[in-house]
Amino acid sequence: MPGSFRNIPRQDASELDSRSSFFSPQAGGTVSAPKIAEARFAIGDIVRHRLHDFRGVVFDIDPVFANSEEWYESIPSAMRPTRDQPFYHLFAENEESSYIAYVSQQNLVEDGIGGPIDHPSIDMVFGEYDLDDERYTLHRSLRH
Questions:
Q1: CA proximity to 99, closest of 122, 70, 124, 133
Q2: In the chain, where are the structural domains located?
Q3: Which of 41, 85, 91, 107 has CB 3.0 to 4.6 Å from 45, enough for a Cys bridge?
Q4: pTM (two decimals)
Q5: What does the pLDDT profile of the chain (144 residues) look like in tens digits?
Q6: Is 111 exposed, middle or buried (0-12, 13-18, 19+ CB in 10 A)?
Q7: Gyration radius of the chain's alpha carbons
Q8: CATH topology of domain 19-142
């Protein structure tokens, strides 16, 4: 009908208001995420993968999956995590090498071993490892 408009039911409007979006270069576009996402770990925390033998320090957090579709599809379907949870960027290490990992919250646990991570990029983002807190602190210039 010309000149009319459709009222959005209250529940639909609140659902629209409860989400936000951001651009992800890795995803190649805009990603929708809840306005409030609860991350279990913080930047500087040391974590361990619950299935694979590696540990790492968190240097960035995405509120939901924000990587490429190709990356997501490369995970075996039986092990594929849900998209609507925090994903963590890690400076990671195992016994053979250091690398950058992208891991879902459901696959991370507290490290429990303690001690610093041996990764060549840590010094670009973090200061010294804090023995008392067992975590890294962001360089002052990178803090908000």
A1: 122
A2: 19-142
A3: 41
A4: 0.80
A5: 344 334 434 444 445 467 877 777 777 778 777 777 789 999 999 999 999 999 999 999 999 999 999 999 999 999 999 999 999 999 999 999 999 999 999 999 999 888 999 999 999 999 989 999 999 999 988 877
A6: middle
A7: 19
A8: SH3 type barrels. (2.30.30)
